[in-house]
Design brief:
The complex is a heterodimer of chains A (594) and B (270). By secondary structure, chain A is an all-alpha fold. Chain A has a single domain, classed as Cytochrome c oxidase-like, subunit I domain (Cytochrome C Oxidase, Chain A, Up-down Bundle). Helices cover 62% and strands 1% of the residues of chain A. Chain A has a two-stranded antiparallel ribbon. In chain A, a hairpin with a 2-residue loop joins strand 1 and strand 2. The two termini of chain A are 42 Å apart. Chain B has two domains: 152 residues, Cytochrome c oxidase, subunit III, four-helix bundle (Four Helix Bundle (Hemerythrin (Met), subunit A), Up-down Bundle), CATH 1.20.120.80; 75 residues, no CATH class. Helices cover 59% and strands 10% of the residues of chain B. Chain B is built from seven helices and five strands, in the order H-H-H-E-E-H-E-H-E-E-H-H. In chain B, helix 1 runs antiparallel to helix 6, helix 1 runs parallel beside helix 7 and helix 2 packs antiparallel against helix 3. The longest helix of chain B has 31 residues. The chains are: A mainly alpha (594), B alpha+beta (270). Chains A and B meet through helix 7, helix 8 and helix 9 of A and helix 1 and helix 6 of B.
Chain lengths: 594, 270
């Protein structure tokens, strides 16, 4: 093979799968890594749910393992309050920054976007590889922090100061360094995506012929590009607070453990919250927009007709992108920042729900009159609609500064944003995996086990999150290691206190239901994992390059697409979703068909 | 596999890929520094005027560094123009000046940093404050370190005025300025800090902003140095692409320069 140095020789294993610059390999690397983190984040939560439902009792099955790995914070396999705080902070961090964003944006975006626009690769293949490597480094730093003395960060995924600085462990410093890696990773990814979409569209692929998924990724990339740097700045400042003794976010007169802290003071805790949520709010759209893009592709494909209101979708996603930068302080109504500012952010928050409703409505109307194919991807995509609907609509009360007086920091908030991200985004991601799997491997995933996975997940997701609305409205506060047992009516009565206002037995007993719902949800993922890996080699071979009879360009490429993707540069002549168009030659018309 | 528009501009957008990339990158940089400048404003607005140090930085040195960076911004353009005209030698001369300017800037900056680390403020138990130097010019001393070392007093050479007093006090004291060390018993010190990040939110933001900017200068110098040295071999294989690389690194360099144009007045003058 090496006889002719000038010839194009096959890359070895390391170059092909580990240090690859091919967007498809990088997409799959991102996808698999993110799925591992998704599982890990879920595992942390299972331990926490056990602790909430059975405070102070050792975690079954893996309790001994926890003790062996983490030491005294998990003595006898019990999740101590410190460990509970660590797991809570890391569950949020891992799920948002290491699982969902890499999966939704980087994995699907990397694999699908260049194919859908008819490009040979991303604009900057080596930057793309660096982006993945930064992501892995960030993940490693986060994981290592579990094993340092004192354990991982404990101040929540929002890392509010001064708490994040006054907890006497190095977990927070690890968290911040890890975040800087992750932010640089997504910065490189975002630059690459936008440049690719602007520069490498195939001839004839005009802006309004882009599949909606590409539009969603385009806007998402802008959110990452512009919203993440302020968090990086804030992270640098908090790191300075933690290691260089500055007071960026520490107020004058701060006392720690009853003693006046030896600091200059003069900083502002509110400044951290502003900078954090300036990222934090666009971030939730980073989580949801790629999901909407995936759902759009699958709905158009399986209703066999053009998506309803393509331009409305595009302009809605653009408005969401813009508006998401001016709603951040609705997370901060109770900080005392003032009613005038609250009024402003309340108004913008209500306005941003309009484009979200338009998008959801377009999807619903698209179903009308279609001859719907109920395959696994479509089931997940269809379930996304009501699940995201519940998540979105329950967010409206949280946008009102008056209603939030009661609901702030309760389980209602948890239920709300999990409905958006868990049965919402994650269902869309599952849909995307089942949908694009044949393109990646040339084989189909098993339909029966796909349905088992879907119905199990659908039922148990709701068993887990629906009760939390009730708990939150009853006044149960989040982030309590005992699940609010201290404030329950039963405990108050035991202490001889007035039990009015305490959490009732019914509300407290919901913890058990949620725990078993979460266990059920975990069991339902087993068929998915097995299906995913077994189907790579033993799945039913996909009928041709275009098993779903889709119109977008990725299905017109060979399967799996070779390095460089298309044999000849495709020339685009049609809109993205030309299904059953009157006068067209076939039932569906690929974008590159005359 | 060839990625299109690596050196030639795409006809409908009018730019090549890397140019799109660098402008997007700079947009994110604007947000990064924008957040820090916003934090500066918020911290300063929230501070009492007497607690916000003023006039402690060396303005002539800062001005000198400003000129250095502006010169480098000119030479980086001239280097690009030289390459456009296919004059490799001229390109090398201009790019060498750019790198020298970058190193000069960093050298001057580290000298400034060093001075600050040995310049102190003492908060006394009677409520008065004084700035100056400790005899022997030690760096990074704190009250805790003094106590741990068992020191009972320090020899302190006070500055002519404290930053909270304003210019008038300085002129008034000019006449009978003492430049002898006075002794301050450690028992009379409430807090002691060099002008390090922990001194105050002013120095915290000063060091954070200038260090982050310094890292950008260093990064830019490495890239420009690479294109000046080994990277310039591309002139003989793909001169167009080399010119593009120089243009892109130059755009970044202008941005780094521009950040300093904001930093200098905000931190030194205002």
């Amino acid at each position: 093979m090496e006889a002719h140095p000038a010839s194009h020789h096959e890359p070895g294993f390391w170059q092909k799968y580990v240090f690859s610059t091919d967007h498809k390999i990088i997409g799959i690397q991102y996808g698999l890594t993110a799925l591992v983190f998704l599982l890990l984040g879920f595992g942390l939560m299972l331990c926490m749910r056990w602790q909430i439902a059975h405070p102070g009792q050792p975690v079954p099955v893996i309790g001994a393992l926890l003790h062996a790995m983490l030491g005294d914070v998990a003595a006898r396999g019990v999740v101590s309050p410190d460990l509970y705080n660590s797991f809570g902070a890391m569950h949020g961090t891992i799920m948002v920054f290491l699982a969902i964003v890499p999966l939704a944006f980087a994995a699907f975006g990397n694999y699908v976007v260049p194919l859908q626009i008819g490009a040979p690769d991303m604009a900057f293949p080596r930057v793309n590889m660096a982006s993945y490597q930064f992501y892995v480094l960030g993940g490693v730093v986060m994981l290592v922090s579990f094993f340092i003395p004192g354990g991982a960060a404990q101040a929540g995924w929002t890392s509010y100061s001064p708490l994040a600085t006054t907890i006497p462990t190095n977990g927070q410093a690890f968290w911040l360094v890890g975040m800087v890696f992750l932010i640089n990773s997504s910065l490189l990814g975002a630059v690459n995506f936008i440049a690719t979409i602007i520069q490498l569209r195939a001839p004839g692929m005009t802006w309004f012929r882009l599949p909606f998924f590409v539009w969603a990724q385009f806007v998402t990339a802008f959110l990452l590009l512009l919203a993440f740097p302020p968090l990086e700045a804030a992270g640098i400042m908090q790191l300075m607070d933690n290691v260089a003794g500055t007071s960026f976010f520490l107020p004058t007169g701060l006392a720690v453990g009853g003693k006046l802290a030896d600091i200059s003071g003069g900083g502002s805790p509110l400044l951290w919250q502003h900078l954090f949520w300036f990222l934090g709010h666009p971030e939730v759209y980073v989580l949801i927009l790629p999901a909407m893009g995936i759902v759009c592709e699958i709905i158009a494909n399986n209703t066999r007709k053009p998506i309803w209101g393509y331009k409305s979708l595009v302009f809605s996603v653009l408005s969401i992108g813009f508006l998401s930068f001016i709603v951040w302080a609705h997370h901060m109504y109770l900080t005392g920042m003032g009613t005038k500012i609250s009024a402003f952010f309340q108004t913008t928050t209500m306005i941003i729900s309009i484009p979200s409703v338009i998008i959801l409505t377009c999807f619903f109307i698209s179903l009308w009159g279609g001859s719907i194919r109920f395959n696994t991807p479509m089931l997940f995509a269809l379930a996304f609609l009501p699940m995201f609907g519940i998540g979105g609509l329950t967010g409206l009360p949280l946008g009102f500064s008056a209603a939030v007086l009661h609901l702030h920091d309760t389980y209602y908030v948890i239920a709300h944003f999990h409905y958006v991200v868990a049965p919402g985004t994650i269902f869309a991601l599952f849909a995307g995996i089942y949908y694009w799997f044949p393109k990646m491997t040339g084989r189909m995933m098993n339909e029966f086990w796909g349905r088992v996975h879907f119905w199990g997940s659908f039922i148990f997701m709701n068993v887990v999150f629906q009760p939390m609305f009730a708990q939150g409205m009853a006044g149960m506060i989040r982030r309590m290691a005992d699940g609010g047992a201290n404030y329950s009516a039963a405990t108050l009565q035991k202490q001889g206190l007035e039990s009015i206002g305490g959490l009732s037995n019914t509300i407290m007993s919901l913890h058990t239901m949620i725990l078993w719902g979460a266990v059920g949800l975990a069991l339902c993922q087993i068929p998915f994992v097995i299906n995913l890996f077994v189907s790579i080699k033993q799945g039913k071979p996909a009928p041709g390059d275009n098993p779903w009879q889709a119109t977008t360009l990725e299905w017109q490429a060979p399967t799996p697409p070779p390095h460089g993707n298309f044999a000849t540069v495709p020339s685009v002549r049609r809109d993205p979703y030309d299904y059953n168009v009157p006068g067209a030659p076939g039932e569906f018309s690929p974008q590159n068909q005359a | 596999m060839e990625i299109p528009y690596v050196s030639q501009p795409r006809p409908d957008t009018g730019i090549y890929n890397a140019k799109a990339g660098i402008w997007l990158f700079l947009a994110s940089e604007v947000m990064l520094f924008g957040a820090l400048f916003s934090s500066y404003i918020l911290l300063r607005v929230g501070a009492l005027p007497a607690d916000w140090p003023h006039g402690l930085l060396n303005i002539p040195i800062g001005a000198f560094n400003t000129v250095v960076l502006i010169v480098s911004s000119v030479t980086v353009v001239m280097a690009w123009v030289s390459l456009k005209m296919k004059k490799l030698g001229q390109f090398k001369i201009f790019q060498a000046i750019t790198v020298l300017c970058a190193l000069t800037f960093l050298g001057v900056k580290s000298f400034e940093y060093r001075e600050k680390f040995a310049h102190y403020e003492v908060w006394k138990t009677d409520g008065t404050r004084v700035t100056g130097h400790i005899e022997g010019k030690p760096m990074f001393l704190t009250l805790a370190k003094l106590k741990a070392a068992g020191r009972e007093k320090i020899a302190f050479i006070a500055d002519r005025h404290h930053y909270s007093e304003g210019k008038a006090a300085m002129v008034r004291r000019e006449a009978h300025a003492e430049h002898k060390a006075q002794e301050i018993p450690v028992s009379q010190i409430k807090r002691l800090s060099a002008f390090v990040p922990a001194h105050s939110t002013y120095f915290a933001i000063y060091f954070t902003l200038t260090a982050l900017h310094g890292l950008h200068v260093l990064g830019g110098a490495i890239v420009i140095g690479y294109l000046f040295g080994p990277g310039s071999k591309m002139f003989f294989t793909d001169p167009e692409r080399l010119t593009n690389r120089v243009e892109v690194s130059g755009l970044f360099w202008h941005f780094v320069d521009l950040v300093w144009i904001f930093l200098f007045p905000v931190l030194y003058l205002l």
